[in-house]
Amino acid sequence: MNVLLGNFNPGLMLMLVGVVVALMPIRPVRQVLTIAAPLLGMVMLANAELGVNKQTFDVLGIEMILYRMDSLSFIFALAFLIAALLNAIYALHSDDRLQDGMATTYAGAAIAATLCGDLMSLFIFWELTAVSSVFLILRAGTKAAYQAAMRYLGVQILSGVLLLDGIAYVFKKENTLELNAFSSFGDAGAGFIFVALAIKAAFPFLHNWLQDSYPKATVVGAVVLSAFTTKLAVYAFARLFPGFDMLIWIGAIMTVFPVFFAVIENDLRKVLAYSLNNQVGFMICAIGIGTPLALNGAAAHAFAHIIYKALLFMSMGAVLYRCGTAKASELGGLYKSMPWTTLFCLIGAASISAFPLFSGFVAKSMTMSAVGQEGLVVIWLMLLFASAGVLEHSGIKIPYFAFFGHDSGKRVKEAPFNMLVAMGLAAAICILIGLPMAGGYGYQWLYDKLPCTSVQPADVCFISGEAIKPYQPFTLDHILTQMQLLVLAILAFMLLKRFGLYPPERPGTILDTDWTYRKLGYGFASWANGVWKKAGPAMSGAAGSVAGLAYTRIEQAFSPRGELSRGPLTGGAAIWTAGLLGVVLLMSFLAA
Amino acid sequence: MSDTPSSDRPDTPVAPDPSVEDHPAAKALFGWVEAKSTGTILFYGVIGLAIALFAADLVVDRHDYLSFAETFGFYGFWGFGAFALAVLSGWPLGHLLRRDEDYYGEADIQPADVEHPDPAIHEREPGE
Fold first, then answer.
1. How far is CA A435 from CA A128, A342, A351, A356, A455, in A?
2. Using CB atoms, which residue from B46, B99, B109 is nearest to A508?
3. Is the dihedral of CA A462, A464, A465, A471 positive or negative?
4. CA separation, residue A144 to residues A8, A214, A429, A474, A514 (Å)
5. Do A375 and B65 touch (CB under 8 A)?
6. Minimum mean pLDDT among A362-366, A578-582, B100-104: which range?
């Protein structure tokens, strides 16, 4: 039994269960399956061997390794499995088998991607995360969600195509697709793969798919989405680009710029999406530094972040579920109706703000120390600024405007019981991994599972080869300085509120860089369409007829009224297009 | 551009349920926030805590990697300044970047899986 459990990628198991769930009409069976699958996955992970290739086979001369676990993939896979379990509990009140199935498949694809051992398998699971997750946006059932889903799918598929392009170069040069770290951008395929990962990690100027789609997803969907896609990219960066200096600056910029957008954003789920960007920035910065402490910091931060960000999305999802809105200008005073949701949200807020005794404190401090150790003054100051910014938008703004502040007069029921259980479990994890406890419990439990720890076979980091030194977060000066930062920031909030200097929450759309393609790009496309329409009748002769016929055929197939847009599967055109693109690229890859 | 203060705006289309009273646990967990003196106590409590943390800075041995961070009260001043800068930037940024909710024609974002979906959004005729 142990052999079977330890030889099969748990992500594949989740994906299979996801397909069964999507087809399963009996709701209780579906509910049991979605909860049992991640639990079984944890058992399978516990039985796996470190660094051994499993499920290997040759496809067209490429060795595919579907299962290869090491200490880096272990921590991400474990966090994903916990998130999948919490998501399944959170979704129990909802009777939507397509959403349940796709959520499980999406989680499975992300887990399988972290546990595979070659680039081609990574590409396949990478694309599956994109295709399965889009349903979590589409199921919201609004025009806005449909359009955001199409933009989301387009961006995610572009990421996959670039990844495949990079893989083709790697294979041509190296004749192997093993998951090895690049040494420089001069390596074959490194540039393409870097950009592919950058899109998925929502780097600055490539980030808008995240703020565009997550707030328009379903109540459950936003929670599920928050856990996997960007953290899969973080894992891939840690695997393929550790120690790349460029990531230090990109990560630092990522931590800072969302702070300004989050301050003026009214939709609290969108505030959390900006906050997610900011948190991923810390991880990217740490990967760029690449020392054992920094890589541990990135992994610990990813683990803690997956849980507390899910908790915050869950609490805002519960508010949205009961009140019908997550807009700060329409909320307030909900602690009277939803006190348990309020409490759990406050625990999530304390965790993300890195208060001592909460998970963020033990995770983020490693990255800050690693930056300080390297003497990167400007970067360190940027991260410290971002730490105060996190407190503003996720630590104070989210709970204050939803549950306290101006009483909106809304009197609703407390969140459904299953949502409370999911939030309670997430809150418990946030506290338990933040506590200084003896005997391998508390934060030590998390530290023992990090990629570069002395628990591993050798006392050197398996990624960088450097010696590992133990890290102690609970020192008196560290607690003091962190409390100074947070308490004085809270005082600033109180003073700004007292003197009426805190900007009021107002409804509206905040322009971001997506304006360039949603307004400027769309405007150009409309203009080009107008030119085409005017030029069309003037076109005559054989060339004009052929072009006109081709246009008509393409329109018949791909327009909103076309063949590919019909039927129950919305977004079919995009999926077909993506599929065809994939086939073309695969053929060129094989021919290369 | 909408400049309507939140307090003057109508509520969402979802009608609050008048039969639902305050949750029984609300009083035990957060009843203290309703006391008139709570705001004042919290304000002066935070000031007191800030002073205590600055005082502790004088006696606690510091081991920062960057020497300037060992300056007295550095983290406190940085936290205060960074928070104030982030919040105050909201005034000019709001004027610069905020547009009408329907700017992209996608104002209705309430998902279908809320408890009481807004019929104006979710029961539209196809093509409406």
1. 37, 22, 12, 8, 20
2. B99
3. negative
4. 40, 12, 35, 46, 15
5. yes
6. A578-582
Which residues in B lie closer than 8 A to residue A217 (C-beta atoms)?
Answer: 111
Which residues on adjacent β-strands are paired with residue A62? A59
**Cα A250 from chain centroid (whole Å):** 17
Specify the amino acid at residue A217: A
Q: CB-based contacts of A526: which residues, under 8 Å, 6+ apart?
A: none
Question: Which residues neighbour A149 within 8 Å (Cβ) at sequence distance 6 or greater?
Answer: A134, A137, A138, A213, A216, A571
Q: Can you tell me the distance from the alpha carbon of A325 to that of A303, in angstroms, rounded to the nearest whole number?
A: 29
| Assembly ipTM | 0.86
**For residue A98, which of A141, A157, A36 has the smallest C-alpha distance?**
A141
For A265, residues 6+ apart whose C-beta sits below 8 A from its C-beta are A271, A274, A510
Q: What is the mean pLDDT of chain A?
A: 90
Residue A404 to residue B73, Cβ atoms within 8 A: no
Element (H, E) at A63: strand A62-67
Closest residue to A489, CB basis, from B54, B79, B113: B79
**Measured distance CA(A248)–CA(A242) in Å, rounded:** 10
Residues 6+ apart with CB under 8 A from A567: none
| pLDDT (tens digit per residue) in A315-328 | 999 999 999 999 99
Beta bridge partners of A467: A460
A494-510 pLDDT, tens digit each: 999 999 999 998 999 99
User: Which residues of chain B make contact with A370, given a CB cutoff of 8 A?
Assistant: none
Phi, psi of A575, rounded to the nearest 5 degrees: -70, -40
Q: How does A516-539 read in b/e, with b if 16+ C-beta sit within 10 Å?
A: eebeeeeeeeeeeeeeeeeeeeee
How far is residue B45 CA from its own chain's centroid?
20
Three-class SS state of A337? coil
Q: Could you give the angle at the alpha carbon of A510 between the alpha carbons of A505 and A515, nearest 5°?
A: 175
CA distances from A126 to A72, A232, A514, B1 (A): 17, 8, 23, 40
User: Which of chain B's residues have a Cβ under 8 Å away from the Cβ of A220?
Assistant: 113
Q: pLDDT-derived band of residue A399, with 50, 70 and 90 as boundaries? A: very high
Residue A408 in contact with partner chain B when CB distance is under 8 A: yes
Q: Quote the DSSP letter at residue A234.
A: H
Residue with tokens 């893989």: A167
- Comparing A72-76, A119-123, A323-327, B124-128, the range with the smallest average pLDDT is B124-128
- B112 contacts A218? CB cut-off 8 A: yes
* Interface contacts (A, B; CB < 8 Å): 285
Q: Which two tokens stand for residue A151?
A: 């933009």
In one-letter notation, the amino acid at residue A31 is Q
**In A, residues 94-123, which contact B (CB 8 Å cutoff)?**
94, 96, 99
Across the interface, of B25, B65, B112, the residue whose CB is closest to A339 is: B25
Contact state of B75 with A484 under an 8 Å Cβ cutoff: yes
Tokens 């406890």 found at: A437
- Tokens for B28? 């035990």
What is d(CA B5, CA A443) in angstroms, rounded to the nearest whole number? Answer: 44
Pairing assessment for the beta strands A54-59 and A62-67 based on DSSP bridges = antiparallel
- Of B42, B63, B98, nearest to A264 by CB-CB distance is B98
Any idea what the Cα angle at residue A510 is, between residues A504 and A513, rounded to 5°?
150
Hunting for tokens 């003196």 — which residue is that?
A: B37
Instruction: Tell me how close the Cα of A239 comes to any Cα of chain B, in angstroms.
Output: 27
Structure tokens at A183: 């040494």
How many residues are present in chain B? 128
CA distances from A371 to A290, A567, B1 (A): 10, 53, 42
The number of beta carbons lying within 10 Å of the beta carbon of residue B102 is 12
- Measure the CA angle with vertex A486, ends A484 and A490; round to 5°: 115
